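batch job 7 of whatever, protein = SalK
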Amino acid sequence: MTTTALPPRAGRRCHNALNPLHSTLYFSPDLDREFGALGFTDQSAMRLAARSAALGAVGAGTVAATFYNYNHELLSRHLPAVWDIASPADVLAARLRTVDATLRRLLGEDTVSSPEMAEAAMLALRATEACTRHARPLYSAHADLPVPEAPHLAYWYAATLLREHRGDGHLAALLTVGLDPVEALVSHTATGKGMAPRWVLGSRGWKRADWEAATERLRGRGLLDAEGELTEAGTALRDELEERTDLLDSAPYEHLGATGVERLTELGRGFLVTAAVAGAFPADLVGKG
């Protein structure tokens, strides 16, 4: 373990390089194929099962708590019913097959089997050695799963652990700054870095009226202006939120050390750019429109 101090927000930058590659799963046609073979016909059910399967055959209440910003009514339509279609173990196996096919398609066989991929997997797994389980249900559930042998799958798995570790801490930070599920989504979209409203509403199960009501609440707190843009106070709150999240998520990156974090960020960005150019994400996924 190194004691070299990290540059400011180095852990966040590393997370931002790794996390989107995990998310390619949810936009992949390979997911529809693999989960369709299990008997799934609804895309929301597929995606909810894919992310929650590590928790076991859970119901809507558990997923509402751990996912935070999903409408409980949407979750109740699919959970726990999805486990009558396929067991969590079968879903996890199909998820890994999806990841394998998706990364091979997006990155290419040369990148998947490259020394750089093996190096990235090694660095990311080393960072996870300092993750902690307490009060981190999604991370802890995924940490119970075996590490895949293939380097590209091990890299994706480690990125998933780091994603969920940061995500669990982020939920604690959201509670601290007082943003409810829809307010969190609206304010994130207002930064220009979150999903566009139509993608949020389509995937999280909220209605336009819910979005507008949350917008009005944020205006009432002085966090959004009349045009729905973040005010100075709103920007400060989102900055505070991310800084609190950084603090709660610092251990993995401090454990890896400045040199390791820099290299993992470099490798992760390279993979992400390749995946994005290959069409990993919808063109209109991010933005305020």
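notes: The radius of gyration is 19 Å.
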